[in-house]
Write a structure and sequence with these properties.
225 residues; alpha/beta; Rossmann fold; 7-stranded parallel sheet; 7 strands; 39% helix; 14% strand; binds NADP nicotinamide-adenine-dinucleotide phosphate
Length: 225
């Protein structure tokens, strides 16, 4: 069975990905900042739980080294933060913005660079980045500038990466999971983690190199940039 590595797997969408792939018999390497506190994750049978702080070079390098020789069919960059919202110009908290950019835009590429050899050695060779509809400049309705800009930056970095590694057969895509009932999405969101992840897994299952560099919704529709 294929192998998937998931970041931010201790709650929300990442935890649901872990449950669904594990139930399907995939080998799941599920990562969390603090596995000691990841009780729900550790309760999922048959999952390999590893520590990973995606903003920390040493943490990423240590896990990549530990997993040297392990083929990763799907690298799932899921970890993210919403950061503070509601700032008017003149009040922008630049430190907070830098943190959101660091987690949402820079870290997924740090993780991907470290694990590209593991992905390239696999059969499927897929890197998936959980982005957001809020990254779309076309659909921008304003507000949440830190979060929006971090995901837009992620999208452009992935677009560049996809072009760079296409000849190596590596598929890189960004995906919107829907507005999902998690700590981030809140209880009033549109869909459950089960609906979101079931849809995303179907989209991921249908990926091939012809779809590299694209932005997908969880229902498989292409998203406007
Ligand atoms: N929920 C939505 O409606 C929605 C919509 C669009 C896009 N998304 C995206 O979907 C992804 C998952 O969101 P979610 O709703 O599941 O959020 P969530 O419930 O808040 O979970 C976020 C996960 O990311 C982890 N994380 C945050 N910073 C990290 C770091 N520096 N290193 C490692 N892990 C880190 C968290 O770990 P800790 O528990 O240690 O904090 C947690 O496991 C995110 O990229 C988010 O932007 C969500």
């Amino acid at each position: 069975m294929p192998t998937v590595l998931i970041t931010g797997a201790n709650r929300g969408i990442g935890l649901e990905f872990t449950k669904q792939y594990a139930a399907d018999g995939w080998k799941v390497i599920a990562t969390a900042r603090d596995p000691g506190k990841a009780d729900a994750l550790k309760a999922v049978p048959g999952v390999q739980v590893e520590a990973l702080e995606v903003t920390d070079d040493a943490s990423v390098a240590a896990l990549a080294k530990k997993l040297a020789g392990t083929k990763i069919d799907v690298l799932l960059n899921n970890a993210g933060i919403s950061g503070p919202r509601g700032f008017a110009i003149g009040e922008w908290d630049f430190k907070a913005w830098e943190e959101v950019l660091s987690v949402n835009a820079v870290a997924p590429l740090r993780v991907t660079q470290a694990f590209l050899p593991h992905v390239e050695a696999s059969e499927k060779k897929q890197v998936v980045f959980i982005s957001s509809r809020m990254a779309s400049i076309t659909l921008n309705g304003g507000g949440s500038a830190f979060y929006r800009s971090s995901k837009t930056a992620l999208n452009m970095a992935v677009s560049c990466l996809a072009l760079e590694v296409k000849d190596r057969g590596i598929t890189c895509t960004v995906m919107h999971p829907g507005w999902v009932k998690t700590d981030m999405g809140g209880p009033g969101a549109d869909i459950t983690t089960n609906e979101s992840v079931s849809g995303l897994r179907k989209v991921i299952g249908g990926l091939d190199i012809s779809k590299t560099g694209k932005f997908f919704n969880y229902d498989g529709a292409e998203f406007p940039w």
